[in-house]
Amino acid sequence: MTKAIRMEAFGGTDVLKWQEIDLGAPAVGEVQIRHTAIGLNFIDTYHRTGLYPLPLPATPGLEAVGVVEAMGEGVESFKVGDRVGYPAGPIGAYVEARNIPAAKLVKIPDSVSDEDAAALMLKACTVEAFVERLYPVKAGETVLLHAAAGGVGLIACQWLSAIGATVIGTVGSPEKAELAKAHGCTHTVLYRDEDFVARVKDITNGEGVPVVYDSVGKATFMGSLECLKRRGVMVTFGNATGPVDPVPPALLAQKGSLMLTRPVLMDYVATRPELEHSTSRVFEMIASGKLKARINQRFALKDAAEAHKALEARQTSGQTILIP
């Protein structure tokens, strides 16, 4: 037996229940791991509410780090005692221990702590995919990044700064502005007090930016389109303020042949080579000192509901982890 957060219905944080579950032996091709740290991500709240529906009952969570305790038949790439992690599911990370396909796991190098790996993997692999493969940002380019002091935001600020890009970041408070700047954000915009479109145009001398990274959703989407240069790329990857309204394709043409994408990490680590490439780049960035975790919140796994409340209320900054 082991304990897990389970949900039998979609809804508010009250649907997250702390329960005992059976944990059998790992099947063929599986590894049994005991978690030491679990990453909290905004997508977890979408799974809980049903915005991204799951078959019920379900256990949320897409990333975690732990230690190998047993292996199923056919597993040769890991051994008992290995430190391992997974950045992109399969879903079900809110557990003390679980069985998971070996193909989804990577070894955690000695240079990376369990907590840092759990805090960074999903978010940093997302940043790697978006700034190195979806739209390869070049040194000297200026980009717009919403929620620059959030979990993904602080990682993106560091990564983009390391590339040599200029980052315009929107934030919700002067404190978050200072945090974003400390992580490489060049210009901060207090979105509650300032017109971010006007600020972007002012900073770029009216040109706009070639790419916008927007995890906020409904509240910023149309303004983000206004910030783009001709043939600019709109990367919308979150719904913190609600889902974006339907967009007629002709609107993208009218605003300068813009390109719109709604990416998810799972499609960028879908193959074993992609998974290894992305996690290796993340671990390289950590080892080089160019990427550092900012774990500002830790919750016990059994208190996952409280973690969700804080995240949805925008009371968090940096990264949040759950401790089994």
Automatic annotation (TrEMBL):
Pfam families: ADH_N, ADH_zinc_N
Record flagged with keyword Lipoprotein: no
Keywords, alphabetical: NADP, Oxidoreductase
Keyword Secreted found: no
Domain (Enoyl reductase (ER)): residue spans on this chain: 11-322
InterPro entries cross-referenced by the UniProt entry: ADH-like_C, ADH-like_N, ER, GroES-like_sf, NAD(P)-bd_dom_sf, QOR-like, Quin_OxRdtase/zeta-crystal_CS
Identification of the protein by name: Quinone oxidoreductase family protein
Native organism: Kordiimonas lipolytica
